[in-house]
């Protein structure tokens, strides 16, 4: 299938389908996010950097980094940040950022054990075919004492808002995406994958099951996004 054709992955998240879908949205990915979130994406990325508490000179992996938009935010800290993704199209669309980029699959990372002070994955874990394997891989490449931050769409905590939000997602989001995205069908997948994703305590349990310690989360924008944190035992 040509990468410019309308194409969405299915919820079983076959890696080749997911990579093709992101190749297809890559060129307008950053713009589409900013339009669909009304600019909140920038605040969420800033909050993710704060949660990582990076220090100059630290080594940081931004996994499922796409165009490197979060990686660039993290690099403002003075840490050395590498963007990894398996969509060549997404990495190519972010090449102008002049960040270190390494193509790789989240479930078999091309890095040695214990090399990163901190690891992050923003709006990526939900798209990985085996998120538990990805969290174990993140643990493997993190130094003892190192930290993890997962930024992901989550479940709004206030019931009435949750209902409106899920309606907005299912109905309005694909229509808005049609106006700005190069592949609006990908945003039907986005809405469906958010609805199917574990809520905050369920995800926290899975992170702990993958071997991370002291797992906690913080809601952003009423739980539209949650930042989960964890540590690798020293
Ligand atoms: C929604 S984008 C997030 C991009 C970026 N992190 C951000 O903050 O906007 C999800 C990314 O996950 C990547 N991805 C999904 N499954 C992956 C896997 N198994 N290995 C590496 N990257 C993966 C996709 O290629 C895509 O670029």
TrEMBL record:
<comment type="function">
    <text>Methyltransferase required for the conversion of demethylmenaquinol (DMKH2) to menaquinol (MKH2).</text>
</comment>
<dbReference type="Pfam" id="PF01209">
    <property type="entry name" value="Ubie_methyltran"/>
</dbReference>
<feature type="binding site">
    <location>
        <position position="67"/>
    </location>
    <ligand>
        <name>S-adenosyl-L-methionine</name>
    </ligand>
</feature>
<dbReference type="GO" id="GO:0009234">
    <property type="term" value="P:menaquinone biosynthetic process"/>
</dbReference>
<comment type="pathway">
    <text>Quinol/quinone metabolism; menaquinone biosynthesis; menaquinol from 1,4-dihydroxy-2-naphthoate: step 2/2.</text>
</comment>
<feature type="binding site">
    <location>
        <position position="122"/>
    </location>
    <ligand>
        <name>S-adenosyl-L-methionine</name>
    </ligand>
</feature>
<feature type="binding site">
    <location>
        <position position="85"/>
    </location>
    <ligand>
        <name>S-adenosyl-L-methionine</name>
    </ligand>
</feature>
<feature type="binding site">
    <location>
        <begin position="105"/>
        <end position="106"/>
    </location>
    <ligand>
        <name>S-adenosyl-L-methionine</name>
    </ligand>
</feature>
<comment type="similarity">
    <text>Belongs to the class I-like SAM-binding methyltransferase superfamily. MenG/UbiE family.</text>
</comment>
<dbReference type="GO" id="GO:0043770">
    <property type="term" value="F:demethylmenaquinone methyltransferase activity"/>
</dbReference>
<dbReference type="GO" id="GO:0032259">
    <property type="term" value="P:methylation"/>
</dbReference>
<keyword id="KW-0474">Menaquinone biosynthesis</keyword>
<dbReference type="InterPro" id="IPR023576">
    <property type="entry name" value="UbiE/COQ5_MeTrFase_CS"/>
</dbReference>
<dbReference type="InterPro" id="IPR004033">
    <property type="entry name" value="UbiE/COQ5_MeTrFase"/>
</dbReference>
<keyword id="KW-0808">Transferase</keyword>
<dbReference type="InterPro" id="IPR029063">
    <property type="entry name" value="SAM-dependent_MTases_sf"/>
</dbReference>
<keyword id="KW-0489">Methyltransferase</keyword>
<keyword id="KW-0949">S-adenosyl-L-methionine</keyword>
<protein>
    <recommendedName>
        <fullName>Demethylmenaquinone methyltransferase</fullName>
        <ecNumber>2.1.1.163</ecNumber>
    </recommendedName>
</protein>
């Amino acid at each position: 299938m040509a990468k410019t054709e309308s194409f969405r992955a299915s919820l079983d998240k076959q890696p080749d389908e997911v990579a093709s879908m992101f190749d297809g949205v890559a060129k307008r990915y950053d713009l589409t996010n900013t339009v669909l979130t009304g600019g909140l994406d920038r605040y969420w990325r800033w909050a993710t950097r704060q949660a990582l508490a990076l220090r100059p000179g630290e080594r940081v992996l931004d996994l499922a980094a796409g165009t490197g938009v979060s990686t660039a935010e993290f690099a403002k800290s003075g840490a050395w940040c590498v963007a990894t993704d398996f969509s060549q199209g997404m990495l190519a669309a972010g090449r102008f950022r002049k960040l270190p980029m390494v193509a790789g699959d989240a479930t078999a990372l091309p890095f040695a054990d214990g090399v990163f002070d901190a690891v992050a994955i923003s709006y990526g874990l939900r798209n990985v075919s085996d998120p538990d394997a990805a969290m174990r891989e993140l643990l493997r490449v993190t130094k003892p004492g190192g930290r993890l931050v997962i930024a992901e769409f989550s479940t709004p905590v206030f019931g009435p808002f949750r209902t409106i939000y899920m309606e907005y997602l299912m109905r309005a989001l694909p229509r808005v995406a049609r106006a700005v995205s190069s592949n609006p069908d990908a945003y039907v997948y986005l809405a469906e994958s958010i609805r199917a994703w574990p809520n905050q305590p369920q995800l926290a349990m899975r992170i702990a099951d993958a071997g991370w310690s002291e797992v906690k989360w913080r809601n952003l924008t009423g739980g539209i996004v949650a930042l989960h944190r964890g540590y690798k035992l020293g």
